[in-house]
Fold this protein.
Amino acid sequence: MLLTQYIILTFMSLGLVQASPTAPHDSPQRLSFDDVVLLGNDGSSKVLKESEYNKLAARSNVTPNTLAPQMRQVLNRRGCEQSTEIEVISDTQFTNSDVAMSPVVNSAGSDSDSLAVSRGYSIANSVTVTAGADITLVKDILGLSFSIAYAQTWTTTDTQTFTFSVPDNQYGLIVSQPLVRRILGQTISGCTDNPTRTDFTADSYSSKAFGGLDWVTGIIRLCNSTTYPVSFCSGEGEHY
Ligand SMILES: *[C@@H]1O[C@H](CO)[C@@H](O)[C@H](O)[C@H]1NC(C)=O
């Protein structure tokens, strides 16, 4: 599939670069504020410097990538009343906004050298629809059409595989910037001469296990700031 090929190509090209090898899981790796952990779909995980990562990301075009438009998907086409179709308007992937993986710490404290991923932070596939649509039906149709489990959630556990040091006198937290596949479209239901159209947004992630953590493809890094709350490093918002 085109999407899979794209992800594999992206991370293969990133993998060509010299990077510090990932440490064995029994000895925690200490990372600095400008280190970026890359979790690739091809099973790779690498630690790069932010400057290297930015150059590579620009070169390998890790930006919204529009896939070929898809044919209308038709399901339940038994009778006028029961028919529901979905129409895909765009199918793209890009690096999504920060998802917290640890609390915000202040490096004036004693724990500033060893900020680790902690338990209870999560990310989930999701479908949102405009009012009036049957969200369960939309999830089912999309799930069948794209083979995506839209009920899937990943939750962090405490892990010491890697730790970040927060620069002196700053606030910081570990964030994931996941690679998201976003499908935008409309559901068309009811009689074909007078159908009801509703918009949907469907976001999904790819599983990636890494050092005892079941998480998703993308990058993991420190997001730091001299002020509190900490502004998102990717996307709009603040970490508290
Ligand atoms: C994060 O820390 C580095 C090193 O002190 C600093 O250069 C950078 O400006 C900080 N980031 C923010 C957003 O303050």
